[in-house]
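Predicting holo structure, GDP-alpha-D-glucose bound.
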Amino acid sequence: MNTDHSISKTIIISNRLPVQLEIDKNNINATPSIGGLATGMKSVHKDSNGIWIGWSGLTDEDLNDDLKNKVKKSLEAHQCVPVNLTSTDIDGFYYGFSNKTIWPLFHYFMEYAEFEKPDWEIYKQVNQKFADVVLENLNDDDTVWIHDYQLLLLPQLIRAKKPDIKIGFFLHIPFPSYEVFRTLPWREEILEGMLGADLLGFHTYEYERHFLSSVQRLLGLSLDFNNVILEDKNVCVDSFPMGIDYDKFANAAKENNKLKQKDKSEVQVEIDKHLDESPDTKLILSIDRLDYTKGIPNRLLAFEYFLEKYPEFKGKVRLVMLAVPSRSNVPQYQLLKNEVDQLVGRINGKFSEISWTPIWYFYRSLPFDNLIDLYTSCDVALLTPLRDGMNLVAKEYIACREDKTGVLILSEMTGASKEMSETLLINPNNFEEVSDTLKMALEMPKEEQIERNKGLQKRLKRYNVERWASDFIESLEESTSKHKEDKIKKLTPHRKEQLLEKYKNAEKRLLFFDYDGTLAAFQKIPENAKPTEAIFDLLDKVHNDPKTDLILITGRDKYTFNKWFAHKNYTLITEHGAWLKDGEKDWEMLEALNNDWFGVILPILERFMDRTPGSLIEEKAFSLAWHYRNTDPDLGQRRANELQSTIQDLIANHNLEILEGDKVLEIKISGVNKGRSANKMLLNKTYDFIFAIGDDWTDEFMFKELPEQTHTVKVGLKKTIANYYVENTTQVHKLLDEFGNTSVN
Ligand code: GDG
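Done. Tokens:
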């Protein structure tokens, strides 16, 4: 497709294109589809040259070269670009991994989830096919919005090739709890794939929370509120409850209510006839794709239970059940179809009378106008999914109630229930509750129905699908501009060159290097972070230059640093400034400190350690540190807060302070910190190049207190007052190497 390089555009990507294709002899007919997503995206898609990339619905086997070209051409007219897939792709990617693994697992049907490596392989290949088409059509200023569970790897596949592109991803189904998600064999790859985006959107806060929890626990990444901190960017995670095209449904209902008898649809005529014959009968509506997540058998059983418990409703109510065929190639769906057929047959057989059958069952898809007939004619809607990302049917039913009557009974396992608290919320597994609620709905006074629906309609009209889409795009813009702001401080090659130039020209240099998280990456067991030969080589090269004073400055204890570094005669400052080892000299105390207070604080820390699996106490000469890196992240943070408030008074009484590092709380005599001790190293000496680098909060003291001309560098993307940042320890090693090379020359 020809894309104008001067104008930025939005690329929407979903498994299926919003266009239906039909092969008619040797021609292709294309008609736009009318789904919720297509409507919501309309403004995004039509604006500024937008294109939509997805599968056309026809496999390579359905098309010869001539037809393939025709498909491409006719889609182009709809601003769509096809991803060509074979029938093997569709089997492994769509029916396989998407719908036999991700779909059941993410909807908590763990026993249905199949973990088939061949399907996973095809899923990866097809995501790559999508990426290839996106990359062919992508310009540098474009925005990419990817949809749903079939394309979880796509964000990272695009990011790998185009690091600066704006990428948004929205998941339309639930994101399950960590305990469920962790059972997936390829869980890390899936999370990493998603984290290629700048913004990840979910329907509800619960799904967002579950995702963040998995990211912390499985990838060990840290969060800053709802941002996941990666090395070179933050990924924003947020909830955007999807709305409907409110006006379309409300207007269609209005028109439908106005129709003269002769213009009414067959379905409406049938319904009217039935209501004329038995005017007291109430209709209960049920609409879903025939999917095991929608709780259709439960609904039937609860309805049966209702008729048994409240026999006075026999002959007075009817369940109108529309089950739309879906994914019938997947065995679980075939089984479900049999189960529903049997249940409907059994219940109808059990209760039917000559003039009344309790269930009207349609297994088909109906045209839009008939859907409106059902929405406007039914007194109650009974939607009981066992799990549902959102459930748009619930919203559409309310939008179609022109006079604001109608009662919605909605499962609390749907995303929609979070926004629709005025409806009657039920647990779909509790038949007692469902049947009692059904009775309540059937008997609810009109005034109460109107009162409940008033607020609902207002909100659905305001937060409609267009608003949802524009909110998402706005947040994506915001998060990427924040991303740009972060990048402002990046130590770019150009800045690095300038820094090295100053280094080279200096007469006397002073360098402060933090250790953990800066020179060495964090390890599960702190002892394992000991310096490698490679680190020694890098340090030696710098240290051997007589023009350079190199200082390793750490929160670690003197004993460990003595063991690791004393033989090298580097200058060492440990315990945030309690101890100094100046080159070859012996250790000396930099501050007058004591540890008389250990007896008061240690028992409290021990209590916290015992109650918090994975945490440990580090006893230094003059300070105590409680580490919680290896605990459950939520528990660790909660206990850290609790510990701070428990010892608050004792701290004040003993002139102590708490230093909050990266997953560590350290208690020590007030006033001792890396900034104060670093400054002591400047006394009586003159330097024309001062440099400090570190990764955590305790290094900020250096950045703050060293002289203004100091070149300060933060490792990682956390908030900092440093001048620049580098991504990780590898970059620190590179820099150190370049310092060393400058010294040698
Ligand atoms: C997924 C998530 C999430 C249904 N039958 C007919 C018909 N429909 C239309 C409805 C509605 C849509 O299909 C169904 O949407 P749902 O939201 O209820 O469910 P899923 O298909 O499972 O959708 C879900 C959604 O994505 C959006 O993010 O809410 O949780 O599972 O719009 O009106 N339309 C026509 N004839 C039918 O017979 N014309």
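Residues 36, 172-173, 242, 287, 289, 322, 324, 365-366, 368, 371, 388-393, 396 surround GDP-alpha-D-glucose (CB under 6 Å).
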